[in-house]
Give the backbone structure.
Amino acid sequence: MLDTSESIQNELIKEFGTDILNRGNKIDRAKLARVSFQDEDHQFILNSIIHPHIFQIIDKSFDRVSSQKKHPVFIVDGALIFESGLNTHLDYTVVITANIKHRMSRVLKNRNLTREDVLRRIEL
């Protein structure tokens, strides 16, 4: 979405400024993360921009899958399902979690983040 939606890009630049752009004037995810995960207010702004678009994508996907009448179940896998209010649109919710040690290990292995960055994101 960050790469393809001009409206999301414009909203993010309006809220967070041009410091979140790379040299090609595209959203730099690392720069955006540094700004948006610095506190709850910035994270709220990011989520208020991104979540409506995610909801639209989920709705379109659900409509497409439902119209095919091939699959009896539609699964949404994502973070912040409760925080975003998406759970109110779902019939059932299954929560799968891991302890902090395992979460930290996975994120440090798969992303270019510091331990402090990971802890700040978990706390928010």
